[in-house]
Amino acid sequence: KQAAYASLRDVEPFTRCGTRIQVMLNAGLRDDMSALAMTGADGVGLFRTEFQFLVSATLPQRDRQTRLYRDVLDAAGEKPVIFRTVDIGGDKAVPYLRDEVAEFDENPAMGWRALRLALEREGLLKVQARALLEASAGRQLYVMFPMVSEPWEFDAAKQVFEDQLSYLKTRKKILPESIRYGAMLEVPALAEVLDDLLPRLSFLSIGTNDLTQFLLAADRANPKLAERYDWLSHSILRFLRRIQLATVGYDVDLGVCGEMGGRRLDALALLGIGYRRLSITPAAIGPIKELVRKVDLKEISEAMNTWLADPSLNLRAELESWARERDIDID
Ligand code: PEP
Ligand code: MG
Fold it and tell me: Which compartment or compartments is the protein found in (predicted)?
């Protein structure tokens, strides 16, 4: 099996019907970047910048951040890297902010974390913006903001980057070739105001790990809720289908960067409701490429529409038998 996946490294993931699917990887450390060449992924769809913050006893200084981002871009070469600004706070506690974060956070996942924290500790976001802009000198920079709940948060975070860019201009520094800004959709409320947000975005990435826990009110880390926390439930897939439909007609790249994209049945469901870009864990790249090559999009989309119209159906069972009938490996 491993050899079969390795042989797919240089094979582009086209579906059976000829649609190119973007298969990207999730990373967070400098060392993760070797997976790009090993798997032949299309780029890094989610670089979790908070890893550097989480492993450090003190707030990482700007030059350390710049060095990491530059190394990551060097390792990626021509392939795109989407840097997500820090998602610390909440359950991702860092020693230097712990007291402040812990004070009121009885529900850390929906607490003072990610962009919420970064917009209030603007120094933190400013430093990260400078580091990302300087590391991207002469190259393309992709920036993504986590836990956006309302469009103004996206605007405010983007403004922090634009201010730093203006500063670098006055200093006659080499600037990024261009900058693309995107948001994560992991807070359900954002889905209701996409008409407002989408015209300002260049890409939108669904964080299904958090989105699912918020939609189902089921903690993603609690083993007692593992059965409730179900990516293949009707409500989750209908919700995701609605988001996909809402993006039609906008010039916005849509993708999923939660772990569900790396599971074959779940990826099959995502393809069936219109998703064409998945960012997943490195070990899943081979299996997902293999899956993509066996799927006819028209067939799976018709099947998903039929199944989603009937909430009494067990979607997992339907997807499994659909895949088996077509000799598609899903284990
Ligand atoms: C997500 O929530 O789906 C996501 C990709 O971000 P994280 O897992 O880092 O919260
Ligand atoms: Mg998340």
Answer: Cytoplasm
Return the DSSP state at 111. Answer: S
* DSSP SS3 for 254: strand
Q: Which among 203, 198, 196, 225 has a CA at the least distance from the CA of 213?
A: 225
- CA of residue 26 to ligand 1 center, whole Å: 10
Candidate from 25, 209, 260, 270 with most ligand 1 atoms within 8 A of CB, to mutate:
209
Nearest-angstrom CA–CA distance, 323 and 295 = 9
Q: How far apart are CA 6 and CA 17, in angstroms?
A: 23
Separation of alpha carbons 315 and 233, rounded Å: 7
Q: How far is the CA of 47 from the centre of ligand 1 (A)?
A: 11
* Whether 144 contacts 82, CB under 8 Å: yes
Radius of gyration of the chain measured on its C-alpha atoms: 20
CB 285 within 8 A of CB 264: no
pLDDT at 39: 95
Index of the ligand 1 atom closest to the CA of residue 258: 3
Question: Pick from 115, 132, 116: which is nearest to 62 by CA?
Answer: 132
pLDDT value for 93: 79
Gap from CA of 11 to ligand 2 centroid (Å): 30
For residue 210, give the ligand 1 atom closest to its CA: 2
Token pair of 300 as six digits: 């799976």
Q: How far apart are CA 134 and CA 147, in angstroms?
A: 25
285-302 b/e (C-beta count within 10 Å ≥ 16 → b): bbbbbbbbbebebeebbe
Instruction: Provide the 10 A C-beta neighbour count for residue 209.
Output: 16
Location of structure tokens 């992709």: 142
Mean pLDDT for each consecutive 10-residue tract of the chain (331 residues)?
87 97 97 96 98 92 98 98 93 77 79 93 95 98 98 98 98 97 98 98 98 96 95 98 98 98 98 98 97 98 98 98 96 80
Report yes or no on whether pTM surpasses 0.95. yes
